[in-house]
Fold this sequence. Notes:
CATH class of the largest domain: Alpha Beta
Shape: elongated
Bound molecules: 3-methyl-2-oxobutanoic acid, zinc ion
Strand order of the largest sheet: 1-2-3-4-5-6-7-8
Amino acid sequence: MLAQPQQKYAPFPVISLPDRQWPSQRIAHAPQWLSTDLRDGNQAIFEPMDGATKLEFFQLLTRIGFKEIEVGFPSASQIDFDFVRDLINGGHIPHDATIQVLTQARPDLIERTMESVKGAKQAIIHFYVATSDNFREIVLDKTRDEVMEMAVASARQIRELAEQQPETKFTLEFSPEHFSQTPLPFARDICDAVVEAWGATPERKVILNLPATVESCDPCDYADMIEWMGRHLKKRDSVIISVHPHNDRGTAVAAAEMALKAGADRIEGCLLGNGERTGNVDLVTLALNLYTRGIHPCLDFSTIDDMARAVERYTQIPVHPRQPYVGDLVNTAFSGSHQDAIKKGLSQEKNNLVWNVPYLTIDLKEIGRGFTNVVRVNSQSGKGGISYLLESSQDIFMPRRLQVEFSSVVQKHTEVTGGEVSAEQIWSMFKTEYLDGDKPIQYVGHKLTAKDSNQSQSILLTFVNCGKQVTLRGDGNGPIDAAIHALKLPIGVQSYEERSLGKGSNAKAITFLEMAIEGVPGTHYGVGVHDNFVTASILAVISGVNRGVRQGKLALTSELEHFPIIRDSLSC
Ligand code: KIV
Ligand code: ZN
């Protein structure tokens, strides 16, 4: 039992913003994205990436379309310093991309950081200082004034050093670390002071990054704070408001989305939510959430599985099978009712302009995923999923009542094995049940002749019954009727459907024949497949007869006389 939390965990000190505007805002365009996979993400893995891996990851990020990439913490790590140098010296930075480097607000570290980016066409220098009361007091042991001085001095130092490196276009980014736990008036004052120290203008904006360093409030409280900051900053027009949500409460995506509504211009995060503890906000989810609401994220996730496998290799962290959009199971339906709805939705989808398939939030083709794994069959599944798999793997479209009949065959199997069955296994069960059965009757051949001008036909049907080849003659108004008469069995045709299997000259015919047996309630199916559609129908009759016998609904003698239904045992 959890202890009572009231004494130990204080409620979050929310600000009063009764006239908040953000809940009724709509996100209208993609934010400015920054990937911090190579910095915050890299700090959070068992084995930080080496230079070669970082370069591969950097190239992946540029291919996806990131224009701002935080590439490291060069004053804290020689690998990061060398990596930044390699990026610049090796000409690896696309002309429209900007690298960002992080530093603490300390003069020696700032100097080293500025040195690391020498020669870059453009760079963002990102410095941070903790501003929350607890961090300031417990960890830094500094007053608010002292922290403010550090921030201002750092901004001035970066400005001076930047002036000495005119070949690079510098942007300043400042993060009041633990922003979401910082009293807002102090967060606003320190941000204003940095903006002033940098000499920001609308043409030379400062990025104010307002992190939820540790996510400690509801996403709507975070959005209130962002809106409050936007309203109270002295020079809003000279500032880019950036958010950097971590995911400690599992609501980083919501926090980022609400922050955008509250006026944020930019989001920092990592692919697939890598990052310290529970991670940085997941940029893939954010981007595809925007996309599926009709806003192009300006990031390309059209081969999402390749991207995920690459990130797994770089970070050595497996993607959870339920990770939004990209997890192995997120587009899979096991449940019968879901499968049925998806099957119906997909069959209508081709006629729709707007994506409207139940249970699938995105057209999987757009993210490079097929529909192969959408429907998977286990004991929870129903006819929809089973028939979808037969349709997609074998092009067999069963009539509805056959779907019901065959699903009980599959279900019997899954209930025994308890596991999943693949499309191949379903096909094999279908063949065993309907197509390959040759007991007690095995088709050998037939000869049809027109009997008279009234389209009545005569058949000579040859088959093996209990090891004995027989040829019987029957007349009827078509081949099926004639075959049934030849067999002299008490069966009637309830429904009949014929389709082609495959296309072109190789197409085969498939016949579904639903038969009723005199005196036996219900119906059952026989199915025949053959190059010739008449033969397919005769095979369907024989398939139905054999199934009827196997199920104890029909009995035959070796002479194939007409027998009353349901006999105790077969005669051979
Ligand atoms: O989470 C955080 O606050 C950070 C800062 C350095 C921006 O990563
Ligand atoms: Zn962070």
